[in-house]
Amino acid sequence: MFSKVLIVNRGLIQANCVRAVKELGCQAITVYAPNDKNSSGVRNADEAWELEPKSSGIPYLDIGQIVDLAAKLKVDAVHPGYGFLSQNADFKKRLNEKGIKLISADNLDGYDLANKPQIREFARKMGIPILPGSETCASVESLAEAAKSVGYPLVMKATEGYGGIGIRVIERESELEASYHNVIAQSERFMFNAHQVYLERFFPKARHIEFPVARDKHGNTIVFPERDCTVQRRFQKLITESPSPFLPDSLRSKLKSAVHMLMDQLQVVGFVSVEFLYDGNQAYFIEVNSYMQPSHGVSALLTGVDMLREQISLAAGNPLSYRESDLESDKYVMGVFVSAEDTERNFVPSPGVITRMHLPYGDGVYSLTNVFTNDTVATFYDPIIAMVMVRERTREKALIKMQSALDALHIDGVKTSVPLMRALMRFPEFRRGDFDCQLLTNKETRERIFENVRTPTDSEIAGILAALSLQRDASKQHILDQARSHSRSNIWDMASEWFSRSK
Fold this sequence. Notes:
Blueprint: E1 4-7, H1 11-23, E2 27-32, H2 40-44, E3 47-50, H3 63-73, E4 77-79, H4 89-97, E5 101-102, H5 116-125, H6 140-150, E6 154-158, E7 167-170, H7 176-189, E8 197-201, E9 207-215, E10 221-223, E11 227-228, E12 232-233, E13 236-237, E14 239-242, H8 249-266, E15 270-278, E16 283-289, H9 296-303, H10 307-315, E17 332-339, E18 341-342, E19 348-349, E20 352-353, E21 356-358, E22 365-369, E23 376-377, E24 384-392, H11 395-408, E25 410-412, H12 418-426, H13 428-431, H14 443-450, H15 456-472, H16 477-484, H17 491-502
Parallel strand pairs: 1-2, 1-4, 2-3, 4-5
Antiparallel strand pairs: 6-7, 6-8, 9-10, 9-11, 9-15, 12-13, 14-17, 15-16, 17-24, 18-19, 20-23, 21-25, 22-24
Helix pairs in contact: 3-4, 11-12, 15-16, 15-17
């Protein structure tokens, strides 16, 4: 096992990596940008080193500074978390030159898991269905030619993108050039392979299914129960369900077999996720991610496997601690990411100081966060600030439990996605599973969801304010009548009775 591990990330994954490293008996060292100094990961680490500000604005992408620090501290390994440098080949190469292990998946020489077109082609040759798409393109001209065979609408993706970054949906040819320049600009900012993109046919009516996989150097493989990550915004996952209640057993078995075969052929060592789109008839392979996914906590809660600890152990050369048969579970887990965003303004970031943070807990309810009361939420990074998970026997029971948990979750000082998530738990289409990856993209659907955003607490506050207003002006009785029709609380009837007595 490693002696010292440097964690080069922030937020929830930083805090979880610090925990996992320390539980394995290793020294946990981390880094932080100045605005992250008080985060829980920094506070709980054995050592924390401040990164000097980077002229380009993202110190967590400063390869030179991080590699030099890792060498100076004489660490055995670096955990990149997800995003940032987690799939950066140059970062991995420079660490290897210093004799430092990057904790991410290794695989057969000649294949780069981060190179999505290359792995797509590998899967196609193995007979695994893939979406209609193109090879790597490096100019508007080559894209225009490729788009003719792919067909519109299509999706343009950076070859080494992650977390929804570097992806654009294109409806017609006239959007191609502007989208290309937009994706390239994002690629340069986040240090992907600049100017390298590819195209895929856009399937709007599809579900997102991913299989977490662990494989050791002896060829032992575990394919974990799939995660359904269909509820997204801007291609970033907001709700994760496992196992998927919407995947037929016959297809599940075929996909698991395909994943086993793919991992063996690629000779993967470590943790990866293998991702598919499912349109209700066919599942199409889309990519392999070589880093631990943000939704790993859902799989850990479902199976009892601490996936971060297992990932670190595999990177140290140890065999798997479990067999696939150990993972059988009759439970169901749902996880909801909480972001500091204004969901009614198309998810714009909502920076500020958190004045109150109350997380739900209880039987089968689990909450994770990296921020607390009086902490500042900045605009520079991913706005995810917490995750709430519930475990139950069925999806129906989990929906009830999650609804209760979200009602008990209170974050003041910044706008968050909590009201929208509460509304989703009550939204008929979501409850019966009648939705796809475009659930929150469709404006009309989003407006119908927002109709359920008003909570009983909102109604109580509005009721009291209306009653106070009516005391001063009895001609405004219609305000009370209109407000009552939108409320789930009996506070409006109480206000009417109070108002009548006060006349």
